[in-house]
Amino acid sequence: MPLPIVAASGEVSQPGDFNAYIRDGALVLPEDIALALAARRITTAERFVEFAFNCPGSLAAALQWRLSDVARARPDLITALQGHIDERKLTLDEPLLRGFGPPIAPLSTRPPPRPPLRVSHAAPFRRKIVPT
To answer: What DSSP string describes 83-101?
Structure first.
């Protein structure tokens, strides 16, 4: 069963600390964090953990923190949630694979870039494109 997020009214977060704890079957977060997550339709602890691991830059922007603040806050969140949600969600074993667009080849295997084209202005009404 998903663990809902509840706002602790009056509590304000500090960068680098989610100040998260479990009470009455819910994840309690400071009001500013809970409101920022709710605005992004993140209403469960599971979704919050996925957001913190997979999109730390977006979470940092939502909370007006630095990326290093999110990275510093994650271990305490994991500790607070251990035993309450699936342990597999609390570890980041493999890199996030995006589900859109073609895979990008490493730079070493890409063909060299084409030279830029130069426009010749020799004739006043006809322009000829000449490779450089």
So the answer is: TTB-GGGG---S----SSS
More confident residue, 125 or 74: 74
Q: How many CB atoms lie within 10 A of CB 119?
A: 8
- What gap in Å lies between CA 53 and CA 118, rounded to an integer? 47
pLDDT at 107 over 70: no
Q: What is the mean pLDDT of residues 60-88?
A: 90
Kindly report the pTM of this predicted structure: 0.68
- Quick one: CA dihedral 99, 3, 68, 61, positive or negative? positive
d(CA 13, CA 11): 7
Interatomic CA distance for residues 71 and 81, integer angstroms: 16
